[in-house]
Automatic annotation (TrEMBL), chain A:
CDD domains membership: SufS_like
GO biological process: cysteine metabolic process
Protein name per its UniProtKB record: Cysteine desulfurase
Protein's UniProt keywords contain Cell membrane: no
Gene3D superfamilies registered for this protein in UniProt: Aspartate Aminotransferase, domain 1 (3.90.1150.10), Type I PLP-dependent aspartate aminotransferase-like (Major domain) (3.40.640.10)
Domain Aminotransferase class V: 29-398
Cofactor dependence: pyridoxal 5'-phosphate
Pfam families per record: Aminotran_5 (PF00266)
Listed EC numbers: 2.8.1.7
Keywords noted in UniProt: Pyridoxal phosphate, Transferase
Tagged with keyword Transferase: yes
TrEMBL record, chain B:
Name the record gives this protein: Zinc-dependent sulfurtransferase SufU
InterPro entries according to UniProt: NIF_FeS_clus_asmbl_NifU_N (IPR002871)
Gene Ontology MF, one: iron ion binding
Domain NIF system FeS cluster assembly NifU N-terminal residues, every copy: 8-127
Membership in a protein family: Belongs to the NifU family.
SUPFAM superfamilies: SufE/NifU
One GO term (biological process): iron-sulfur cluster assembly
Organism domain of life: Bacteria
UniProt xrefs under PANTHER family: IRON-SULFUR CLUSTER ASSEMBLY ENZYME NIFU HOMOLOG (PTHR10093)
CDD domains noted in UniProt: IscU_like
């Protein structure tokens, strides 16, 4: 289904019960997908079925339910492996989300390795979750955080990246798609350049996996992190992909049950991958829900979804640009489906309240990317972000609501 | 959207467009910075107190219409009030926006009443109270500084 003409948005919408909801007496127009997406009935049913007829704690259980739940949990891992084309199952670690995954790499990979004078290289468009874990590890080790600047258009300054990448750089951690600007970064170029200097790369894929087909082997990234809840799956579940060689060399992130082979007071033998990094009873239902979400996305086809969302992005950009006093923040040549904007006369926070009255759900604020706001000298933006179920008519509702907002504040 | 007129009354829109006492003071007696990390609103409140009376109060910064209008109206309401009256007014205003019970009429809100509609928008209450909390912090700092106890 690679042709947008065949893209059946109506039947997709029918799979998402919440989209039939009315907000303040208006049909819900859900344009807050970059914060969290909604759930198809297939995901909701998978979780319901688990709790109604298949739930038990997993691993080491001899009884039937435990074996069933273990199989469902590991099937979800297999779905993730296929989805990102990891080489093997045990390179897929379940985490609580992207934030957790990045912290895992910061503490288990970077911290033992970093020394005073070493550098971690990130970019100016990172989400706080790809800034703060590195600040913490720098504080712990004396390493320094370096930041690749961004242009007025919202693109990485790649010549500066090349300059900042040095023999002191121990890790590059970069966002694939910016949550505040929508910019799609040239991560393949970044990975190749870093590898040429022997530097591994972590990619923050929270905003990319719902919109762009990702193949971790083709990218050759060393780590790839993403969340379930932006991929039409549940909250509290995410994934860290890591190359086997790196993961094997890393100490565990957290100690506890399931991450061990044997424990005695003289010493403990750690479990093998991926369990070494999955201490404690994991988010079983979350993983199974994520597996169902991935199956759903694959059934529609990510290329078809990407093409549909690109159409929405182009249409929204065109419509919004016609509005007097509206400025789009982030106009990278390569963008994923979101539009961040400000109005001359209305603060983003007021835009959010006004649009909500029309049933339009957008996000307003700094989007956990305060350095981006500071870069463009704005306190906040309003952000409309698209998902596979959004329609062109919904963009019209958005544009009309913005017009009305401006009228009221005139 | 029309029912938002209750929230965004003309007076509020006017104060947002033309905020009163919107200026930085070079040598204030009291000063505080307030942040609403949720939405990025930032406000500085400047204060001059003479003989226990708010002689001048001003603000600058960046906030939404509710935040800006509330700050602007606050500066007008506070001028000429004693420190105790100012604190009582803050309490009364805060009460009106956050409590279900009617606020005590002994400290009338006067023109600030137009902001009472914010109560129906719980996520916006912090916008309306940010300037007041910042003023309160500035006053408390000032009182702390001059206190000899």
């Amino acid at each position: 289904m690679n042709n947008t003409a065949q893209y059946d948005v109506v039947s997709i919408r029918n799979d998402f019960p919440i989209l039939g909801k009315q907000i303040h007496g208006k049909p819900l127009v859900y344009l807050d997908n970059a914060a969290s997406s909604q759930h198809p009935v297939q995901v909701i049913d998978a979780i319901k079925e688990l709790y109604e007829s298949g739930y038990s704690n997993i691993h080491r259980g001899v009884h039937q339910l435990s074996q069933d739940a273990t199989k469902a949990y590991e099937d979800a891992r297999a779905s993730v492996r296929g989805f990102i084309n990891a080489d093997c199952m045990h390179e897929v670690l379940f985490t609580s989300g992207t934030t957790d995954a990045i912290n895992l790499v910061a503490q288990s990979y970077a911290r033992p390795l970093l020394q005073k004078g070493d550098e971690i290289l990130i970019t100016h468009m990172e989400h706080h979750s790809n800034i703060v874990p590195w600040q913490m590890v720098c504080e712990q080790t004396g390493a320094e955080l370096k930041v690749v600047p961004i242009s007025d258009k919202g693109e990485l300054e790649m010549d500066r990246f090349a300059e900042l990448l040095s023999e002191r750089t121990k890790l590059v951690s970069v966002v694939h798609v910016s949550n505040a600007l929508g910019s799609v970064n040239p991560i393949k170029t970044i990975i190749d350049a870093a590898h040429a200097k022997g530097v591994p790369v972590l990619v923050d894929g929270a905003q990319s996996v719902p919109h762009i087909p990702v193949d971790v082997q083709a990218l050759d990234c060393d780590f790839y992190a993403f969340s379930g809840h932006k991929l039409y799956g549940p909250t509290g579940i995410g994934v860290l992909y890591g190359k086997e060689k790196l993961l094997n060399a890393m100490p565990p992130y957290r100690g506890g049950g399931d991450m061990i082979l044997s424990v005695s007071f003289e010493g403990t033998t750690y479990n093998t991958l991926p369990y070494k990094f999955e201490a404690g009873t994991p988010n079983i239902a979350g993983a199974i829900g994520l597996g169902a979400a991935i199956e759903y996305v694959q059934k529609i086809g990510l290329s078809a979804i990407a093409a549909h969302e690109h159409g929405l992005l182009e249409y929204a950009t065109m419509e919004l640009k016609q509005i007097d006093g509206l400025r789009i923040i982030g106009e990278a040549d390569q963008k994923a489906g979101l539009v961040s904007f400000v109005l001359d006369t209305v603060h983003p926070h007021d835009i959010g309240t006004m649009l909500d009255a029309e049933g339009v759900a957008i996000r307003t604020g700094h989007h956990c990317a305060q350095p981006v706001m500071e870069r463009y000298k704005i306190p906040a933006t309003a952000r409309a972000s698209f998902g596979m179920y959004n329609t062109f008519q919904e963009i019209d509702v958005l544009a009309k609501a913005i017009d009305k907002t401006i009228g009221m504040f005139a | 959207m029309e029912n938002l007129r209750e929230l965004y009354q003309e007076v509020i829109l006017d104060h947002n467009k033309n905020p009163r006492n919107f200026r930085k003071m070079e040598a204030p007696d009291g000063f505080a910075h307030g942040d609403n990390p949720l939405c990025g609103d930032q406000i500085d409140v400047y204060l001059v107190v003479k003989d226990g009376v708010v002689d001048d109060v001003s603000f600058d910064g960046n906030g939404c219409a509710i935040c800006t209008a509330s700050a602007s109206m606050m500066t007008i309401a506070l001028k000429g009030k004693t420190e105790a009256e100012a604190t009582a007014l803050f309490d009364s205003f805060h009460h009106a926006l956050t409590e279900d019970k009617p606020y005590p009429e002994d400290v009338p809100l006067g023109k600030l009443k137009v902001l009472a509609g914010v109560k129906d928008y719980p996520v916006r209450v912090k916008c309306a109270t940010l300037a007041w909390h910042t003023f309160d912090a500035a006053l408390k700092k000032l009182q702390g500084n001059i206190s000899t106890e």
